[in-house]
Amino acid sequence: MTISRFACLLAACLGLGATAPASARSLDDILKAGELRVGVNPTLPPRALFNEKNEIDGFEPELAKAVADKLGVKLTLVQVGSPDRIPFVVADKVDIVMGAMSRTSERAKVIDFTAPIHSENYGIVTTDAKPFAKLADLNSENVTLIQVRGTTAIPFIQKNLPKAKLVLLDNYNDRDRALAQGRGDASFDGIDAVAYRLKIFPAIKWKVVATPEYGVTYSSFGVAKGNYGLRDWLNIALYELHTAGTVEAIWEKWFLKPMDTKVPVTPYF
Known about the structure:
- It contains nine helices and eleven strands.
- It is of the alpha/beta class.
- The protein folds into two domains: about 25-120 and about 220-255, Periplasmic binding protein-like II (D-Maltodextrin-Binding Protein, domain 2), CATH 3.40.190.10; about 120-215, Periplasmic binding protein-like II (D-Maltodextrin-Binding Protein, domain 2, 3-Layer(aba) Sandwich), CATH 3.40.190.
- Strands 6, 9, 10 and 11 form a four-stranded antiparallel beta sheet that branches.
- The longest helix is centred in the last third of the chain and has 16 residues, at about 230-245.
């Protein structure tokens, strides 16, 4: 799908007619407004979650606050889901989107990405009752994969595991519940937070199989296409936050362990 076709379809979905995507706020606009709007997904604990005060909390909100403080503006968190993360950026509903925003070449046709915030390590989430030991084991007509709409793993599955049956749900909470209820055999996705997520199902004997054959991906801030002033400032801010140890410290606070794959920090971007 070309960018223009994506924009037209997106506009129709958002009820905007056939108009082009909204003009994004520049860095100067954000400074003048005194507010930074950041999209986070509270169904992805501990990246983001609702705390006991029913406030959005977690790794991403805390990092977003550090970025807003560095910019000298107020932080406004906007709730997004996996399927609508990119549309929110294109429609100028947020200045920056997080929500475990993996960088991919397809997504980069529609929005721009900063340097990496953190790595994403992938694997198979299943139970002890299942025999899966590698990705190839999922490529069977007898396997049902429970996945979340709008996530990186889906195109990979469709291309490399075409025999598997796909059940697509709207968020990870529903995904986890479906696996716990036995409505599917496994899920292939990021596993950095899986131990945190699945502890609410203590009766289930979970099994998590790392898949190094898939490789490592990286999550970044997503910004509107062509918003280079904001993107470049964010890259500098991220470099400072990485070298100060802030990103890693916030990660370890919420994930209770270091990143499985360290982000190679560079002053060049």
